[in-house]
Amino acid sequence: MVQIPEKVKYILDILKVNNYEGYAVGGCVRDSVLGRIPGDWDITTSARPEEIKKIFRKTVDTGIEHGTVTVILGGEGFEVTTYRVDGKYEDHRHPTEVEFTPDLKEDLKRRDFTINAMAYNPEKGIVDLFDGMKDLERRCIRCVGEAEERFSEDALRMLRGIRFAGQLDFTIEEGTLQAIQKQSASIGKVSVERIRTEITKLLLSKRPDKLLLAEKTGLCRSFLPEFSVMLETTQNNPHHSFDVGHHSLRTVMNARRIGEKLRKKEAGIPQPYDGDFRTEKVDTILVFAALFHDVGKPLCKKTDEKGVDHFHGHAEAGSQMAHDIMRRLRFDNDTVNMVTKIVRFHERRFEGSRKAMRRLMSQAGVEVMPYLFIIQEADVLSQSEYMRDEKLAHIKAGRRVFTEILEQGEAVRLRDLEVTGQDLIHLGVPQGPRVGEVLRELLDIVIDSPEKNNRNLLLTEAEKRITIE
Fold it and tell me: How far apart are CA 217 and CA 177, in angstroms?
């Protein structure tokens, strides 16, 4: 059932030869039982840190104060941690001290969830003291011991539990869920970076809609209050069947599915971007753009005399809101800028004008367009069926025209122009902001008429502007 890698077996064997216990522990055991490939293998042992360092040739003190030594084998690192009992948690996140113990049970009972509190070695098999195997069969997330105690020790465990439910498509045991609700306010003690990591993993999981559990239990109040407002905002018009929050979660799921489809080459994307949809960062941009694409709707909602809801200006308002939320969650600048642009332009649909597509590519950015098409398609698939086929046909046509514009080398960026800033300076345009202004004016000409991207013609146009000045 659990097949451990040779290097892990070697570490366990060396520990045994030296009269120490050793087990693979935690998520690697859980994932192996579920038939998943573990991301890493953690080992727990009765050996003290200094003893671990003596019996292995190459080690790194990665967390020695908490009993963790990384053993290096063939350039690969494996965390080996001494059995321990945690002291008091005064900050709802870290124990003030740890005490080493020779007892495996004491080590396992300090862990968060039953499915993460199992250990394994080839001789003893699976050590399951808290019915983790039964919870795997029940597809259930349950705390080890008293849930409130586990969450009071480390508030991040509440969000981790919901994230595991999303990744594994499990339910959360009722007592555990109630404990999250009781202690939800303490999530505010956790660093924003840790929260961001968990939310990102949740949105990238099988069931991003488990975010609803974070809202239901009150966790979202601390880091994403906008989502609660989105869930409260109905959309009474022919294009929608769901409130803004549920619609946005469906958009996240559809964006993930479309992204996977592109990876498998079941649909084409422009060659310059082939491969862009293969990294976690790109997936992160997609899911947060999907989640926030309509975040501005509650602010912009107007209901007409017939009772029909309208949301004019929500893309622009949502772009600023998405920017502020992403900053609050401390995302890197590139991710913030990409999500902000996608939200801003997600309503700009292709209506058949090649010139309008060039204009959109110039304003949004060529690098944004492949994401934009995915979000637009995911958005349509998450709406009502009203005009769905027509909307999808427009998006498909837009992708085709976008590809043609790229392949034919039509200018949509300043760098695509046949003249440079240096050319304008030689022509007599004063150095400084005016050079950029003239270049943008020339680009406007070329976007309207691609055939005018000619060096002599553009220099003539630039001369006219110098003469006028």
Answer: 7
Q: pTM higher than 0.90 for the full model?
A: yes
| Total Cβ atoms within 10 A of residue 265 | 9
Q: Residue 313 to residues 138, 299, 319, 320, 344: CA-CA distances in angstroms?
A: 46, 9, 10, 12, 10
Residue 262 CA to residue 275 CA, distance in Å, equals 9
DSSP β-bridge partners for residue 355: none
Give dist(CA 180, CA 202) in Å, integer: 17
Calpha distance 340→361 (Å, rounded): 15
Using one digit for the tens of pLDDT, what is the confidence trace for 99-157? 999 999 999 999 999 999 999 999 999 999 999 999 999 999 999 999 999 999 999 99
* pLDDT for the residue numbered 93: 54
User: 307-328 as b/e, with b when 16 or more CB fall inside 10 Å?
Assistant: eebebeebbebbbebbbebbee
Both tokens assigned to 261: 């489809």
**CA separation for the pair 196, 271 (Å, rounded):** 32
Q: Is 448 exposed, middle or buried (0-12, 13-18, 19+ CB in 10 A)?
A: exposed
Contacts of 128 (CB under 8 A, 6+ apart): 117, 118
| 61 vs 340: CA distance, rounded Å | 41
Q: DSSP readout, 5-51?
A: -HHHHHHHHHHHHTT--EEEETHHHHHHHTTPPPS--EEEESS-HHH
- Residue holding tokens 């997330």? 141
Q: How confident is the model at residue 184 (pLDDT cuts 50, 70, 90)?
A: very high
Q: Which residue has the tokens 């001369």?
A: 463
Closest CA relative to residue 118, chosen from 44, 19, 46, 37: 44
Q: Which residues have C-beta within 8 Å of that of residue 323, sequence separation ≥ 6? A: 336, 339, 340
- Measured distance CA(382)–CA(242) in Å, rounded: 9
Hey, CA dihedral for 352, 396, 282, 172, is it positive or negative? positive
Within 8 A by CB and 6+ apart from 306, the residues are: none
CA distances from 30 to 27, 63, 105, 120, 295 (A): 5, 23, 17, 10, 37
Determine the Cα–Cα distance for residues 220 and 230; give it in Å rounded to an integer.
Answer: 12
| DSSP-assigned states of every residue in 328-373 | HTT--HHHHHHHHHHHHHTT----S-HHHHHHHHHHH-GGGHHHHH
Residue 260's pLDDT band, with cuts at 50, 70 and 90, is confident
Residues 46/82, Cβ–Cβ less than 8 Å: yes
Q: Which of 154, 130, 96, 163 is nearest to 25 (CA)?
A: 130
